[in-house]
């Protein structure tokens, strides 16, 4: 029996040690405590969604896109799937060494319905190793365009839920910076991103606004909330999208209008796909 009140009672200590969240002698340092708190907080959001999906589908699949070291995937499997006879977790990651380590750990933990794929986004969309239908897509702290990659994958797979925690996002800010002179003469709104720090912050904010509109245009109901308890991270926005099949009427038009108004027309392919 472990002595850490912050560790869930049915959580495998051996797994937390293998993930280097716990030290070999079972200690939890400050950084690991923060990491575990963040993952648990996200698990609390995902668990009711997963239970709902499990009641509807015999063998649901959750894909963790841009899985990295797969803290989220492993802890989800350990807490929600280990005791079950069905349901799969697939981690998709572009770094081959992380994929191999995760595969080895899944075998060592006897997590038979957990798999890892070394694939790019484009490959993951068409790969025969990924099921035709995926029920839940997660992306935790997916940097820059990796959140968009997860959204593109989720849209293609008609995922019932997408759970996204975007990270740093520089692409939109870069386009704003490039077109700044033109924007300043075109619209007074460009004052919002005239100064570099504002360009960065507003660019990050507007990226998530565009992502939400993109999801709504594709038939998802979107909620955006703050991940409380992430006080050590500036990236504490959680986007949960539920597929309803009912696109929000004006979402696509609004998206188009914002891209035009902010001089971001070259981003159309990213946000207005489909």
How would you portray this structure in words?
The chain has 274 residues and is α/β, with parallel strands linked by helices. It has two domains: 13-167, Vaccinia Virus protein VP39 (Rossmann fold); 170-218 and 249-274, no CATH class. Helices cover 46% and strands 16% of the residues. It has helices at 13-18, 30-56, 71-81, 96-108, 121-126, 146-156, 171-178, 180-186, 196-217, 251-261, 268-271; strands spanning 61-65, 88-93, 114-118, 136-142, 161-166, 220-226, 237-243. Helix 2 (30-56) packs across helix 3 and helix 7 (171-178) packs across helix 9 (196-217). It is globular, with a radius of gyration of 20 Å. The mean pLDDT is 89.
Strand order of the largest sheet: 3-2-1-4-5-7-6
Number of domains: 2
Gap between N and C termini, in Å?
51 Å
| Strand portion | 15-25%
Low-confidence stretches: none
Order of helices and strands: HHEHEHEHEHEHHHEEHH
Number of helices: 11
Largest sheet, if any? 7 strands, mixed
- What fold name goes in the CATH topology slot of the largest domain? Rossmann fold
The average pLDDT is 89
Can you say what the CATH homologous superfamily of the largest domain is? Vaccinia Virus protein VP39
CATH class of the largest domain: Alpha Beta
Number of strands: 7
Q: What is the percent of helical residues?
A: 40-55%
């Amino acid at each position: 029996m472990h002595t850490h009140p912050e560790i869930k009672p049915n959580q495998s200590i051996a797994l937390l040690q293998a993930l280097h969240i716990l030290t070999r002698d079972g200690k939890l340092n400050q950084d690991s405590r923060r990491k575990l708190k963040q993952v648990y907080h996200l698990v609390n959001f995902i668990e009711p969604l997963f239970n709902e999906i499990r009641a509807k589908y015999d063998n649901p699949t959750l894909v963790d896109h841009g899985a990295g070291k797969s803290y989220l995937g492993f802890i989800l499997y350990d807490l929600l799937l280990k005791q079950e006879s069905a349901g799969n977790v697939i981690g998709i990651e572009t770094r081959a060494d992380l994929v191999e380590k995760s595969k080895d750990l899944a075998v060592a933990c006897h997590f038979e319905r957990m798999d890892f794929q070394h694939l790019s986004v484009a490959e993951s969309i068409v790969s025969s190793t990924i099921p035709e239908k995926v029920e839940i897509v997660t992306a935790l702290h997916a940097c820059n365009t990796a959140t968009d990659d997860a959204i593109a994958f989720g849209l293609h797979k008609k995922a019932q839920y997408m759970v996204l925690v975007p990270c740093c996002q520089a692409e939109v800010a870069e386009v704003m910076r490039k077109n700044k002179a033109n924007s300043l003469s075109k619209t007074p709104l460009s004052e919002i991103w005239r100064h570099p720090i504002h360009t960065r912050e507003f660019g990050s904010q507007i990226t998530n606004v565009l992502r939400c509109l993109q999801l709504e245009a594709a038939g998802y109901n979107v909620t955006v909330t703050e991940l409380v308890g992430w006080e050590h991270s500036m990236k504490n926005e959680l986007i949960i999208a539920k597929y309803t099949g009912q696109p929000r009427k004006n979402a696509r038009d609004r998206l188009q209008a914002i891209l035009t108004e902010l001089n971001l027309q070259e981003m159309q392919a990213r946000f207005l796909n489909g």
